Amino acid sequence: xxxxxxxxxxxxxxxxxxxxxxxxxxxxxxxxxxxxxxxxxxxxxxxxxxxxxxxxxxxxxxxxxxxxxxxxxxxxxxxxxxxxxxxxxxxxxxxxxxxxxxxxxxxxxxxxxxxxxxxxxxxxxxxxxxxxxxxxxxxxxxxxxxxxxxxxxxxxxxxxxxxxxxxxxxxxxxxxxxxxxxxxxxxxxxxxxxxxxxxxxxxxxxxxxxxxxxxxxxxxxxxxxxxxxxxxxxxxxxxxxxxxxxxxxxxxxxxxxxxxxxxxxxxxxxxxxxxxxxxxxxxxxxxxxxxxxxxxxxxxxxxxxxxxxxxxxxxxxxxxxxxxxxxxxxxxxx
Length: 334
Description:
- The chain has eleven helices and nine strands.
- The chain has helices at 16-24, 47-55, 72-82, 101-111, 170-176, 182-185, 198-207, 232-244, 246-251, 259-281, 289-327; strands spanning 3-9, 34-40, 62-66, 87-90, 95-97, 115-126, 151-152, 167-169, 212-225.
- The chain folds into two domains: 3-226, Spore Coat Polysaccharide Biosynthesis Protein SpsA, Chain A (Alpha-Beta Complex); 235-324, no CATH class.
- It starts with a strand and ends in a 7-residue tail after the last helix.
- Helices cover 43% and strands 17% of the residues.
- Strands 1, 2, 3, 4, 5, 6, 7, 8 and 9 form a nine-stranded mixed β-sheet that branches.
- The protein has 334 residues and is of the alpha/beta class.
């Protein structure tokens, strides 16, 4: 098997048909042997029936697995373990690949043998056109347009691609990415219910390995974005949760002995950014949504270490309580 297309989905009854039709139309000049692997993450709609209808009449094998642990991170790990090829391309169920995506994804691995993972060029396909004032924050919605030339993500820059449209080498992921990252263990969720930052955390482990992470503009994807993802209530919570998750991913970029110094440096930097941003936009935070989102991001980043330490203590106390309940059940009755 040359390639596995992995699609985590939750209640994807109305989204899966379009992406599967796009996959049905893939060009395959190299006659690749490939498969589609759908991981159903506890869907309660007709997702299983939709998958079955495509399995009966599709050009390649479609396999479906069930992952009962809720969260896209768990679904991705299930796909990695079960994939029958060394190259695994992740598509969210709202990603629509161009007809050459499969071929471009496979060829890049042959041309860039040092790439352990590489991301797609992703443009937004909006249900309603976003106002121009939001353009600068749209990359946070998994939109990645970095030009038409391949480029390597520099470790020191701290920038990484989204997992939507990402291709990874199976053994690289198994060797370097833990089964359950810190943010997944802490049950740290963002506004849409998925674990916040777990995809960046996973890629951070690869980024500090000998392998490189690249951007491949030949892999083109349209990301369908419904109107509710541009609403103020959703965006403010999203940016706050991204900021609150940053302490974990920042820690992965430095040596353990550097972490106390890193903490002080980031606290000073985040406080300064928050203060300067507030002074600049304080009269516009109610009317300029992009500025309000950036304010939430800066404040979340500033509070991140304290918030995550609190979450860690809460999780540790919960685990201790569960252990006590198992050991002394009579003490917890009533």
